UniProtKB/TrEMBL annotation:
Belongs to the transcriptional antiterminator BglG family. GlcT subfamily. The keyword Repeat applies. This is PtsGHI operon transcription antiterminator GlcT. InterPro entries: BglG_antiterminators, CAT_RNA-bd_dom, CAT_RNA-bd_dom_sf, PRD, PRD_sf, Transcrpt_antitermin_CS. The lineage of its organism: Bacteria, Bacillati, Bacillota, Bacilli, Bacillales. The keyword Nucleotide-binding does not apply. It comes from Paenibacillus motobuensis.
Amino acid sequence: MKILRVAKVLNNNVIIAGHPEHGEVVVIGKGIGFNRKTGDTIPLEAIEKMFILTNQMEQEQYKQLVPQVDEHLIEVIGEIISYISRKTQSELNEHIHIALTDHLAFAIKRAEQDLAFHNPFLYETKEIYPLEFELAEYAIDLIHKKLGVDLGDDEIGFVALHINSAITNRHISEVRGHAQLIADLVTVIEEELQISISRHSLDYSRLLTHLRFAIERVRRGERVGEIERLDVLLQQEYPSLYTLAGKLTDIMEQRLHKPICHAELSYLTMHLQRIATSQSES
């Protein structure tokens, strides 16, 4: 039977232990450290609902973080991550333990000091990542129930980005950058067309979906089929919208540091034309 041997108890929910395959690891789980001491052994089967950090750098960062965080929060975050893993049926990037713990500990501290932190792309996040947003709602609600701290809707958006980062194995800065890029593109569209798109409208939802998948195609280096005849027609029929689409793709290229195939410009022009028509009819 394989066992873990306790090297150090950090608190009731976190220990450092020797693993038969991974060497020294950080083990996180409800009550894992309760009444345990150095040298104790734990059967591996007993930690099926717990998390093991095997990456050396992640271990060191988490060890530094734990003494600064209330152990009840660590316990709640363990529940949150278990829930996310079950609902998505995926193996999350282990960095979520550090990123989410650090983020939520700071968010709780701000809330206790009544320091509000506005989320500039809350609506975009909800539309772009609906599953992650729903999971984040669960997380913020659980914190409210278990710790008595209401972090509010803005934090739901921030936590959703952390969840997406863990699911997709992308760094949170990249995920946040894409959400910010989409919000900025929407602002450019509204300014250029001199319109205000309702954040609750179907037009808005469609626009965000299109921009999200366009960015994903660029990120993965995928190309959409060229539509030369349609491209010429769009330039002739909707010159101002075609120019705006070009401005938007230029911004995307600059921010993503990757080339965008010309066909994306045509598809974006068609989408802009639908928005412009819808706005003029409303």
